[in-house]
Amino acid sequence: xxxxxxxxDVKSAFLQGRELDRxxxxxxxxxxxxxKGKLWKLRVALYGLDDASVRFYxxxxxxxxxxxxxxxxxxxxxxFKLDRDGVLQGMVGTHxxxxxxxxxxxxxxxxxxxxxxxxxxxxxxxxxxxYV
Length: 132
Prior knowledge:
single chain, alpha+beta, elongated
C-alpha cells in the first residue's frame, strides 16, 4: 500500500490522561515558588501515581473510539480503522506515550491530524526513526 509509517510522542502524556475520580493533594516542589504551607489538588494523575499510565491509556482508547478506530482483539495496544467496505484505512500501535501509525490519505486526515489537535505532541518522525 506504500503507506508512510510515522511515530508521535505525546508530550507530558500523564498530564493529558483522564481526570482523577478521587482527591489527591500534594506538596508543591520547591521549584514552583509556591508560598509555604500551600498544597496542590491534582486534577490528573502525575508520573509516580499507581494509575497514571492506565488513566492515560483509558483516555487514548476512548479518543480512538470517538475517531471510529477499532481495538484489536489480539493486542489491546493496536487500533485500526476500516472503510465502509471493510478495507483497512490505517492503524495505530501504542506503547505508553508513543504512537506508531500509518494509513491512507483519509486516515491521515480523519485520524492522525485530529490526534495532533487532541493531544499535545512532542517529537514526531516519518519513515526513518529509532525507538530506544
